Structures are given as structure tokens and as C-alpha cells.
Amino acid sequence: MVKRRSVLSLLGLTFSIVVLVHQSAAEDHVAVSWQTDAESAWRSAHSAQKPLLLYVSMDNCVYCRKMEKNTFADQAVVSDIEESFVAASVAAESRSPLVRKLRVRSFPTTVIISPSAGVLAYIRGYVEPKEFRADLATAVKKEEAKRP
Length: 148
Hints:
This protein is α+β, with helices and mostly antiparallel strands. The protein has 6 helices and 4 strands. A hairpin with a 5-residue loop joins β3 and β4.
């Protein structure tokens, strides 16, 4: 009976540690502050004079989920986006007129739009964090070059 209590106590302690580690990791998790209304995000971007970063995905897209789990969960990517862009995420299925207007045909696609309404970049497909950051920096430089 004593051994059984010890085993149960040990299991309880182990479970508690696992829960605490999981909670701590969740609290450390960084994420992009996505807006889901593209029109509202565009108004915010225009008002703030920042480019709009529009992430277009589809519900059953494996590479879209991979992009969200890896690239958009990378702390440096999140920091770059939060500092220099207004971010919006839309599902292609629900925003088909916008998706057609932007000529998005593959998923995921990230479209970066200047506050003056010109497209700065199309980033198509899954992109690793390091490469994505380079693409973001290039778009920022293009936008800065357009300013007087």
C-alpha cells in the first residue's frame, strides 16, 4: 500500500511538472497580432503609413499550417512584422474577390502592400523564417525608397 501511494505521488508530481512546463512554454509563445478584417487593416496601414502584410491561406493547406507554426511563430519574424507592418490574415475561401484582385493563385501567399496602394512583394509558398525576414527587409527598403 505504501509503494502504491509513493507511485501515485510520483505520478502526480510528474504530471504537475509537465503542466507547469507546458504553461510556461505557452506564455513564452510569440504570435503575430493578426487582424482578420482586410479593409480595416488597410485603413490602419494607410493611417500609420506602414505597409500592409496580407497573409492569404486556405483551410486545408498543409503548407499554410506549416508557415503559421514555424515562420509566423518565430520570435524575430514576429518582431519584424510588429515593428514595420500592419498584419492581416484572410482565408482565401471567404475573401475570393480580394484574392482574385490580388491575383493570388497559390497558397500560402503573403502580399505586402505599400500605404500608397502599390504591391511591394508577393511571397509565395512556405518560406523559412530566415528567408522570410530577408523578404520583409527588402519590402521595407522598397517602401522607404518610395518616400521623398
